[in-house]
Amino acid sequence: MYTSDQRETLRSDQRETLRSALIAAARQDARISGAAVTGSAAGGAEDQWSDIDLAFGIGDAGTMPAAVADWTERMYREHGAVHHFDVTIGAWIYRVFLLHIGLQVDLAFAPAHEFGARAHTFRLQFGVAVERAHASPSTPSELIGLAWLYALHARGSVGRGKLWQAEYMISHMRDQVLALACLRHRLSAVEGRAWTACRPACPSRCSARSSAVWIRPPTYTHFGPPPTP
Questions:
Q1: Is 93 within a domain?
Q2: Are both 54 and 113 inside the same structural domain?
Q3: Is residue 229 part of a domain?
Q4: Residue 44 gets which letter from DSSP?
Q5: What are the phi and psi torsion angles at 162 (to 5°)?
Q6: Is 36 found in the same domain as 14?
Q7: Which of these, 71, 189, 202, 222, could form a disulfide with 179 (CB 3.0-4.6 Å)?
Q8: pLDDT > 70? residue 208
Q9: 71 vs 177 pLDDT, higher one
Q10: Residue 17 maps to which CATH number?
């Protein structure tokens, strides 16, 4: 068994070796028309906590299910995968693996006619990629709508005495507000990536307001007595 420190060292040491091995294997797979490094490594922001993100184009879309299955078997057989799940966006399949050393590996598969940069974090390693529009970020209108929607559901959850549901709704409402602040300061509003950078840019009154909605452990002391059955 590894200690936490040993796992971090091992993960950092093996990341580039594993990424290189996966790209080399992709070159030998005749079904793959192109491969790209994506994510933090492609954007020059990789650190010891980063995962591995790769994208593969599949020349014949009809072979994609078999290709995904074969690469899944490879990840378990050769690289110590212990679990995986899928995220599907259009024709893209993102198969997300957890390795036994605590490293996440994301392998994206797309038909060749759709294989191209969905964001600026895309670095082609071999083969061909098509030119495509980048995925559109959330608009202020969408974030505002989600914020008031979560606020309404939070109020209803408190009124029903469903405190854990209220915590869930208030946390999501806060997420939308912080994403709006990021957009205002021309920072990424995706997955909280720029929240730390956004805070110094926000006026102190805005930071104070956002801090006020951090949830303490929900008890009836905070929210009032439970409703009478």
A1: yes
A2: yes
A3: no
A4: T
A5: -95, 80
A6: yes
A7: 189
A8: no
A9: 71
A10: 3.30.460.10
pLDDT for position 2: 45
What helix, strand, coil percent values describe the chain, rounded to 5? 50, 20, 30
Q: What number of residues does the chain have?
A: 229
Tell me which residue range forms the domain holding 176: 140-223
Same domain (yes/no): 116, 161: no
Position 185: which residue type? Answer: H
Share of the chain above pLDDT 70, in %: 77
Alpha carbons 39 and 47: distance in angstroms, whole number: 12
Residue 84, classified by CB atoms within 10 Å of its CB into exposed (0-12), middle (13-18) or buried (19+), is middle
Q: Let me know: does 40 contact 53? Beta carbons within 8 Å.
A: yes
User: For residues 68 and 145, what is the distance between their CA atoms, to the nearest angstrom?
Assistant: 37
**Span 96-105, average pLDDT:** 94
| Total domains, the chain | 2
Of 105, 127, 149, the residue at which a domain comes to its end is 127
Of 65, 95, 64, 94, nearest to 81 (Cα)? 95
Quote the tokens at residue 32: 């793959």
Of 189 and 166, the structure prediction assigns the larger pLDDT to 166
pLDDT band at 1 (very low <50, low <70, confident <90, very high): very low
Does 107 score more than 60 pLDDT?
Answer: yes
The pTM of this model reads 0.74
